[in-house]
Specification:
heterodimer, A: about 130 residues, alpha/beta, Rossmann fold, 6 helices, about 20% strand, B: about 450 residues, alpha+beta, Heat Shock Protein 90, 2 domains, 5-stranded mixed β-sheet, rod-shaped
């Protein structure tokens, strides 16, 4: 059973995703800030991470992604570098931030980008696709 | 907006330059007169004129080179004083009080009125009067005899002191009157200039204030919209999860209520998104955020996205885009927002079985004309000027479709204008509407 870590500071959004994923047989762990998320990654080693952008600050999600994917060989997250990242955020936040893998893949390597609110079907589809790819 | 300030008090140095420029002609004229006099009237010694011309030239050179160091006001007064002196000498050597050059005093008085203040001009005028009158009296009393010209009778006014005094009195009165009149006119002009400047200043302040207010409004809308979006997105997600049955079974009534609630939330999310788009419409785009976009690709993508709705309403969609290699430099989302809104409206307000024409063509001045015409319900003529206003919806549009924010077209207009383009509309009620947008573009190849 795949373990999915949701990092999002909105309790209700986490709850909605958790119910959808758990009902479909996934194991869900939640973290409510970027910092907590990074700590949790080390303890649970998830199979996939769902990551919000704006949390304790406007770019907390980016920082998590950067830390996780750091090319530095000595990085404490080197072992978690290849965990697929699904980034979710509001369309409006996309403005001026280059993190869409389709157009700015070289800028920040998240594996997929979804806009909030994410319909349950779309969420499941993306999660399954990412897991089967990795 | 930067308004250039017209000179008022700060233009003294400019007036010094102007004075110096004019004087080159005076010096040149005097020298020329000396040279011509030598040839035309050999009986009279014309060398004083030559020397006078050279003297004018010399002090003009001095004033010109002293410009950076000599205070402008002092410079102007010294110049006028030396001019009076030069004119007096010129008059003396060309016939004294009867010299035709005495009229140049009047001209110079007018020039002085333009460059110095009223009382300064009066003082200068008095100096001129003292100099001319002294010259005439010295000449009349035989203390400074002007040269006599062959063929020109001796000056009769010097033989009659009363007549000479009347002449000088009249001359002095004319000088003073001219000073009064010209300084009066100049003062009036200056006063009006000052009030215009003040008006301009007020306008500039009002304009900046309006711009600031507009930015503040956009900022406010942006912040509020962001804050509203979060809870809305969360509510929608929760309802969706419930509707999908992940929270357990639902009876039909609960399902229906949740669906209704979700529809209202979607409406609200759309509304907030449009408000955000509107506030973004007027936001300047930094140059580094602009990308080169193939207009053809962007339009095609939006059309593809709309295909399902077009098919559902059985609309005939005729697309004709010429020049597929035209590039728009800007933000892809901005461009697609424009197309999306215009095409969306055409689909919404065209009855089943109608037609929509999408035409794109390159205009000779590097503008791309994108026309979208429909056979829809049209816009009432009296409401046409307001269709681009924020929150405005035409009366027949409201009847046709209850929901709608009235923001779509103002988003289109603001976004297009941000790039220096424009949008126009023609419409006949019951027959259809035609929106034309003019977008500045880059063409890599004229033949495309």
């Amino acid at each position: 059973m795949a373990t999915i870590l949701i990092i999002d500071d909105d309790f209700d959004i986490v709850e909605a995703m958790r119910m959808t994923l758990e009902a479909n047989g996934f194991n869900v762990v939640a973290a409510y800030s970027g910092a907590e998320g990074l700590r949790t990654i080390k303890t649970v080693t998830p199979d996939l991470i769902i990551l919000d952008v704006m949390m304790e600050d406007d770019t907390a999600g980016f920082k998590v992604a950067w830390t996780l994917r750091s090319p530095d060989p000595g990085s404490e997250f080197a072992a978690f570098r290849n965990i697929p990242l699904l980034m979710i955020t509001s369309i409006s936040e996309k403005k001026g931030m280059k993190f869409n893998p389709e157009t700015d893949g070289d800028f920040l390597s998240v594996d997929e980008f979804l806009s909030k609110p994410v319909p349950p079907k779309k969420l499941l589809e993306s999660v399954r696709a990412l897991l089967s790819r990795h | 907006m930067d308004i250039k300030e017209p000179p008022l008090k700060s233009d003294l140095p400019e007036r010094v330059r102007w004075f110096v420029r004019l004087r080159w002609f005076a010096a040149g004229g005097t020298i020329l007169m000396g040279l011509l006099g030598r040839w035309a009237v050999p009986e009279v010694d014309a060398s004083p004129l030559l020397y006078l011309g050279l003297a004018i030239l010399a002090y003009n050179v001095v004033f010109r080179s002293l410009r950076p160091w000599l205070a402008a006001r002092l410079s102007i007064h010294l110049q006028i004083f030396l001019d009076w002196l030069a004119l007096t000498v010129l008059c003396h050597f060309t016939g004294g009080a009867d010299s035709p050059f005495i009229l140049f005093f009047l001209l110079h008085v007018v020039l002085s009125a333009i460059v110095v203040s009223q009382w300064e001009c009066f003082l200068q005028g008095l100096l001129a009067i003292v100099m001319t009158n002294t010259m005439a009296l010295l000449e009349a009393t035989g203390r400074w005899i002007p040269p006599s010209f062959p063929g020109v009778p001796e000056l009769p006014r010097y033989e009659n002191l009363t007549y000479l005094l009347i002449f000088l009195g009249a001359f002095d009165a004319v000088i003073l009157s001219i000073i009064y009149l010209s300084t009066f006119v100049v003062r009036q002009l200056r006063r009006r200039e000052a009030s215009l400047l003040e008006l301009q200043d007020n306008l500039r302040r009002a304009y900046h204030h309006a711009v600031e207010m507009d930015e503040a409004k956009s900022r406010f809308v942006r912040i509020v919209s962001h804050e509203i979006r979060g809870p809305l997105a969360a509510s929608q997600s929760l309802i969706k999860v419930a509707l999908e049955g992940y929270a357990g079974g639902l009876n039909d009534k609960v399902r229906e209520l949740l669906e209704r609630a979700e529809r209202r939330i979607v409406q609200l999310i759309d509304y907030v998104n449009e408000l955000l788009d509107l506030s973004r419409g007027s936001q300047r785009l930094p140059e580094e955020d602009k990308t080169d976009i193939l207009i053809y690709e962007s339009i095609t993508r939006i059309i593809k996205e709309s295909e399902a709705r077009v098919a559902e309403k059985q609309l005939r969609l005729n697309v004709q885009i010429e020049h597929p290699h035209v590039i728009f430099r800007g933000d892809l989302q901005d461009l697609e927002r424009i197309f999306h809104n215009l095409l969306g409206n055409a689909i919404k307000y065209t009855p089943r079985g109608g037609a929509i024409d999408v035409i794109g063509t390159l205009l000779p001045d590097n503008f791309f004309l994108f026309k979208i015409c429909d056979t829809g319900i049209g816009i009432p003529a009296e409401e046409l000027p307001r269709v681009f206003d924020e929150f405005f919806r035409a009366t027949n549009a409201k009847k046709e479709l209850k929901t709608g924010t009235g923001l779509g077209l103002s988003i289109v207009k603001k976004t297009i204008e941000k790039y220096g383009g424009r949008v126009a509309v023609t419409s006949v009620i019951g027959e259809g509407s035609c929106f034309s947008i003019y977008l500045p573009v880059i063409t890599l190849d004229r033949s495309v």
